[in-house]
């Protein structure tokens, strides 16, 4: 059975352009419930730790710089089949390849400044939720 939570982050490009409200509304309209939410300013260690799987990739330093460039809004979202449905809602990593109507197609600038994160597995969703929130805040 697939899990019912996922972790998202509204990224600094989107918060900086005042798009957080529109993006949150889009997520709610799609049937997700917000279980936990806050605004955070990540330092290099926090952003690098979050994207640690990518630390050997050529874009890692730029990604950390981008993620520390302004406020982020992590949220724990609840819905049946949350991980897969949310990845569909946000669209491909590169907004140029994202489907019409997806959050990245609507609001993202580039493959790096792509407005929003979505967990890629149930296991990572739980791990990432705990990266920002305590058990009490999630459950
Ligand atoms: P996320 O994990 O943020 O939801 P994703 O799962 O679609 O995105 P990943 O492959 O996990 O994509 O990459 C993590 C993030 O790193 C991307 O969202 C993007 O901000 C950045 N990124 C990925 N590939 C590139 C690239 N080729 N050049 C620059 N930045 C990239
Ligand atoms: Mg990813």
Description:
The protein has 139 residues and is α+β, with helices and mostly antiparallel strands. The chain has a single domain (5-138), classed as Nucleoside diphosphate kinase-like domain (Alpha-Beta Plaits, 2-Layer Sandwich), CATH 3.30.70. 42% of the residues lie in helices and 14% in strands. It has eight helices and four strands; from the N terminus they run E-H-H-E-H-H-E-H-H-E-H-H. It has helices at residues 12-16, 20-29, 44-50, 60-67, 82-90, 103-107, 122-132, 135-138, and strands spanning 5-10, 33-37, 73-78, 116-118. It has a four-stranded antiparallel β-sheet. The radius of gyration is 14 Å and the shape is globular. The two termini are 19 Å apart. It binds adenosine-5'-triphosphate (ATP) and magnesium ion (MG). Adenosine-5'-triphosphate binds at residues 54, 59, 63, 93, 111-112, 114, 117-118, 120.
């Amino acid at each position: 059975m697939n899990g019912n939570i996922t972790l998202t982050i509204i990224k600094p490009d989107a918060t900086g352009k005042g798009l957080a409200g529109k993006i949150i509304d889009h997520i709610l309209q799609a049937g997700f419930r917000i279980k936990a939410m806050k605004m955070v300013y990540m330092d290099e260690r926090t952003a690098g730790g979050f994207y640690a799987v990518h630390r050997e990739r050529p874009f890692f330093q730029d990604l950390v710089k981008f993620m520390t460039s302004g406020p982020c809004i992590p949220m724990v979202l609840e819905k049946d089949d949350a991980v897969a449905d949310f990845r569909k809602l946000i669209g491909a990593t590169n907004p140029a390849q994202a489907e019409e109507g997806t959050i990245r197609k609507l609001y993202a600038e580039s493959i790096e400044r792509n407005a929003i994160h979505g967990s890629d597995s149930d296991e990572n969703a739980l791990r990432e939720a705990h990266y920002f929130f305590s058990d009490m805040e999630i459950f």
